[in-house]
Amino acid sequence: MFPTRAALLGAAGVIALLFAGTAQSPSAGETTVPAAANPAAVKIDNFNFTPPMLVVAPGTTVTWINADDSPHTVREKDGKFKSAALDTDDTFSQTFTAPGEYEYFCTIHPRMVGKVVVKPAGSSS
Amino acid sequence: MADRDENEAFGGARMNRRGVLKCMSWAGTGVLWSLSGGVPRSLGLVGEAIAAEPKANGFTFLQISDSHVGFDKPANPNALGTFQEAIAKINAMPTQPAFVVHTGDITHLSKDKEFDDADQAMKALKQKVYVIPGEHDVADADNGKAYLDRYGKGTQGKGWYTFDVGGVHFIALINVFNFEPGFKSAGLAKLGDEQLEWMEKDLAGRSTSTPIVVLAHLPLWTIYQDWGWGTEDAPRALGYLKRFGSVTVLNGHIHQIQQKVEGNVSFYTARSTAFPQPAPGSAPAPGPMKVPAEQLHSVLGVRTVNYVRGKSPLAVIETPLGA
After folding, report:
1. Which label site among A72, B241, B291, B322 has the fewest CB atoms less than 10 Å from its CB?
2. Domain count of chain B?
3. What is the structure's pLDDT at A122?
4. CA atoms of B61 and A102, how far apart (whole Å)
5. Mutate which: B113, B178, B179, vs A, most A CBs within 10 A
6. The domain spanning residue B269 has which CATH number?
7. Closest residue of A to B283, CA-based?
8. Interface pTM (ipTM) of the complex?
9. B163 in helix, strand or coil?
């Protein structure tokens, strides 16, 4: 349900991830850009998840990148997904298929929280 | 006793970004503890007070903390190196401590290689090393499996345990598994019900004259809520300890010395062997702090704490060394 595309990738790994996302998209080659080929990003900076709330369409891969000197983790509050410890510039990606709200936090600094909202494009709520 | 003495961070706000290499000369230190008649006394930092000797009926033990093996950022490009340096200093002490405790954050990222390197470094010690995890040691995607596979054997629950030395009862608590996510709270650490019930049972039959030493990674009192520097359900644990005459709580996590006395309970946090962190609230966020060496030695390097048991309550006197 929550396939982890890539964990602990360095900067070079991000490029590989983008290729993978494109290759796996059923719409690859068409002119319409599918949601999955346009992954959203959350930057971890100065002990904050930015943006703190991200709204994406189902099928979107969200990538967190740690820009801090301190390591952080990304863990859904009920453990639906969890990264390993992300060192500086490490990334963690998660593909969201099911609509819903996913609250997550950093297990090393639990004050740090964020949310991913998955809803179909054009949905009003 | 003045607030300044009771609850002072080591001048974090005054530090700037110089002197990285020189800071290594102090970063690799541990805290030497002497138990004499059941009352712990800090004999100072290793290298500063190694001539101190325990009384005939006491013993010393040493606390190291927050080695963050694997850390390689500017605040300390070689955390394994300073950890090894601390261990070499312990081995060079003329009076060897009876054992060593490591109060967590052994590694930086919970990686096998980091645990391997830390283990290898600690093998150089002649003494038994009692360890507890910090949140950095259970940050693997498997929620602490890497730590527990290595250090969890023979422990209770999720790694907690007790041991007894020289009539002193040591309780090694773990408060890095049950963080309350900060959606609606401050994001403080928690011991959790299972561990607290175990602790209550462990203490139930013990004589109030038994000296107790509690080890935990995060402080068991709230030092700075905004940074999560505290343990939400610590009051319950302290409730079980209230009836004992001598209770000493040794923590790590905040990479600086802070202390507090409350009734018969004395709380102390230790320095890191890797890098300092800012004083509470003196920076936008906690984290590795680069420090200037020339200030360090006057502000940090030569401070020791003597624990002197007064009539009531326990008295704490701080005495700078080598000033």
Report:
1. B322
2. 1
3. 72
4. 46
5. B179
6. 3.60.21.10
7. A46
8. 0.75
9. strand
Per the structure, the complete domain to which residue B310 belongs is given by 3-320
Give A68-88 pLDDT, tens digit per residue.
989 999 999 999 999 999 999
Write down the CATH number for the domain with range A6-118. 2.60.40.420
What residue type is assigned to position B210 of the chain?
T
Q: Which residue has the higher pLDDT, A42 or B209?
A: A42
> Which chain A residues contact residue B138 at CB under 8 A?
107
**Rounded distance between C-alpha atoms, residue B118 and residue B139, angstroms:** 16
CA distance A49 to A66: 9
Q: Is the pTM of this model over 0.90?
A: no
The string of pLDDT tens digits covering residues B99-134 is 999 999 999 999 999 999 999 999 999 999 999 999
Residue B295 — φ and ψ, nearest 5°? -80, -30
Q: What is the pLDDT of residue B171?
A: 97
Which among A7, A83, A108 is the nearest to B135, CB-wise? A108
User: What is the distance in angstroms between the Cα of A70 and the nearest Cα belonging to chain B?
Assistant: 6
Report the percent of chain B where pLDDT is more than 90.
43
Do B68 and B28 contact (CB within 8 A), yes or no? no
* Beta-strand runs (E) in chain A: 6-9, 40-45, 48-50, 53-56, 60-66, 75-76, 91-96, 100-105, 113-118
Taking residues A53-79, report their average pLDDT.
95
Which runs of consecutive H residues, i.e. helices, occur in chain A?
Answer: 11-24
State pLDDT tens for residues B131-146. 999 999 999 999 999 9
- Look up residue B77 and give its DSSP letter: S
